Amino acid sequence: MSFESLNLHPSIIKAVQTSGYTTPTPIQQQAIPELIAGHDVMASAQTGTGKTAAFMLPALHRLASPAAVRSRGPRVLVLTPTRELALQVSEAASKYGKFLPRTKVVSILGGMPYPLQNKLLSQTVDILVATPGRLIDHIQRGRVDFSRLEMLVLDEADRMLDMGFIHDVEQIAASTPADRQTILFSATLDSAIDKIAARLLKSPKRIQIASQRAKLENIEQRLHYVDNLSHKNQLLDHLLRDTAIKQAIVFTATKRDADSLADNLSAQGHKAAAMHGDMTQRERTRTLTGLRQGRLKILVATDVAARGIDIADITHVINFDLPKFAEDYVHRIGRTGRAGASGIAVSFASDKDGIHLKRIEKFTGNRIESHVIPGMEPRFKPRRTPRNDAMPRKSPSAHKGKRTWPNNADAPNASSHRGNRTAYGQPQPYGRDERRRSFRSDSLAGSGNYARAK
């Protein structure tokens, strides 16, 4: 199948071919005809399969025809969970719509100055890409006109659910025309997503190309057991000195860890920088630009970078801390092996990480083989179940039965992170652990009495 057979506008096909694409991916083949026909769609596809183009090409095709309502408001609204994903979608819209006349794409994100955003929203907008929290602010101030909105896209709906944005999404949807076309993309189509779709979509077409439990055959997955934080840091330094690494992303559990680890790596001679939710948008954009231009080799990040970063030169992903939720593991390692290229994903695990490792292996259906570097062998002997490729699988959301949704999943005290402690229960060496802890007084050691720290 070719893009010409999808009945897209000739200017869009020209832009796609100029970008070097000749054959649509499976998600594009199935989603684009349904969207051009005007149906609501809920779809799931593995990361890196071209889902952004799957909804953006039909959106641009719609913009090739004049609007039915005259106003300055957007005709297409795309909601994303993170700033990085919003910028990626905006870039895709500009790239695929460059041969269409007068197509204005605007991004409204947290971290950007309000005066600039107010100016952008006062002009005619065709495609508005936004994160929910900042868009709610502008809606409440009456700065957004949705009178001519024709299409609403919820990109990475599962991540917006994780980050506590769904109430904002529903509030935004309620302010748009009832006859809009709605598209929902999610990593998994589980019961929680089905409930959201039932409230926001009208008789949607359901498309599921590949489960997030796919084997990710183009990504080699490795596991290294670690005894303590010092052992982990030694392994990381050794791995990052491999000449096969072109660029790498190292994922940590907390924002403070990302900053401190990036500083440590820089002191060791690595070209490293951190990225997390406490940074301004200008700082995050500058860091990503340095990565894309090759000035940085290593990005140390929290899960804010797990979605929305598409850099072809990332050859390795290292999970310095295992993610708490298994689907986040798939999104993390999906930053490498993009567009059919090969990649390597390395994960560190202590003896206390068994439950997280078990969840990841059940979710992906793959057993991650452990590796040992001579001279850096772990002291403890991990106990693992025998290899079984036909591992029993629970539903994708079974491990989230008691999950809570923080407003900011990147916050140190959010339920998806470990606060100021490592996965193996020891205080982080970076910064001060300020929580109160009881200690045993040496003078009272014989009596078994304990004193409390003031």
From TrEMBL:
Q: Name one Pfam family in it.
A: DEAD
The residue ranges flagged as biased composition, category Basic and acidic residues, are: 431-440
InterPro entries given in the database record: DEAD/DEAH_box_helicase_dom, DEAD/DEAH_RhlB, DEAD_box_RNA_helicase, Helicase_ATP-bd, Helicase_C-like, P-loop_NTPase, RNA-helicase_DEAD-box_CS, RNA_helicase_DEAD_Q_motif
Top-rank lineage group of the source organism: Bacteria
Catalytic activity, per the record?
Answer: ATP + H2O = ADP + phosphate + H(+)
- Segments carrying motif Q motif: 1-29
Q: Tell me the GO BP annotations in alphabetical order.
A: response to temperature stimulus; ribosome assembly
Q: What is its EC number?
A: 3.6.4.13
Q: Which GO terms describe its molecular function?
A: ATP binding; hydrolase activity; nucleic acid binding; RNA helicase activity
Which Gene Ontology CC terms are recorded? cytosol
Residue stretches making up the Helicase ATP-binding domain: 32-207
Which part of the chain is the DEAD-box RNA helicase Q domain? 1-29
Instruction: Name the segments for region: Disordered.
Output: 371-454
Under what name is this protein listed? DEAD-box ATP-dependent RNA helicase RhpA
